[in-house]
Design goal:
100 residues; mainly alpha; Non-ribosomal Peptide Synthetase Peptidyl Carrier Protein, Chain A; 4 helices
C-alpha cells in the first residue's frame, strides 16, 4: 500500500466534493477543513453524502492501492461522526489508512 499524507487526503476529498457539487448544480467553490458534510449548515443531503463517501473511497483505494471501507461498523458506532465536516472526514480516512 502506498503512503499518503493528510494534505493529499484533503486534496482528494475536496476534489471529489467540488466535482460532485458541480455535477448536481450546487457548486461549492471554497472548500476548507470546516466545510460541513452533515447537519443544518451542510449543502448536502444524506444521499449526496453517500455519493461523496463512495467516490472518495474509490479514489483513496485507487491512489493508495488499498481496500479500506469508509462506512464500516467502526465509523457508524463512533460517538462523534467522522462525516461532520471535511476535517473529521480527512482525519478518519488517514486513521483508516494508518491501520493498514
Amino acid at each position: 500500500m502506498q503512503s499518503i499524507t493528510k494534505e493529499e487526503v484533503f486534496e482528494i476529498v475536496s476534489d471529489v466534493i467540488k466535482s460532485y457539487s458541480i455535477e448536481i448544480n450546487r457548486e461549492i467553490k471554497n472548500i476548507n477543513h470546516d466545510t460541513r458534510l452533515i447537519g443544518i449548515s451542510s449543502q448536502f443531503d444524506s444521499s449526496d453524502l453517500v455519493q461523496i463517501i463512495v467516490e472518495v473511497e474509490d479514489r483513496i483505494n485507487s491512489v493508495c492501492n488499498s481496500e479500506i471501507t469508509l462506512t464500516d461498523e467502526k465509523a457508524m458506532s463512533r460517538t462523534t461522526s467522522p462525516f461532520i465536516n471535511v476535517e473529521t472526514f480527512v482525519r478518519f480516512i488517514k486513521e483508516k489508512l494508518d491501520e493498514k
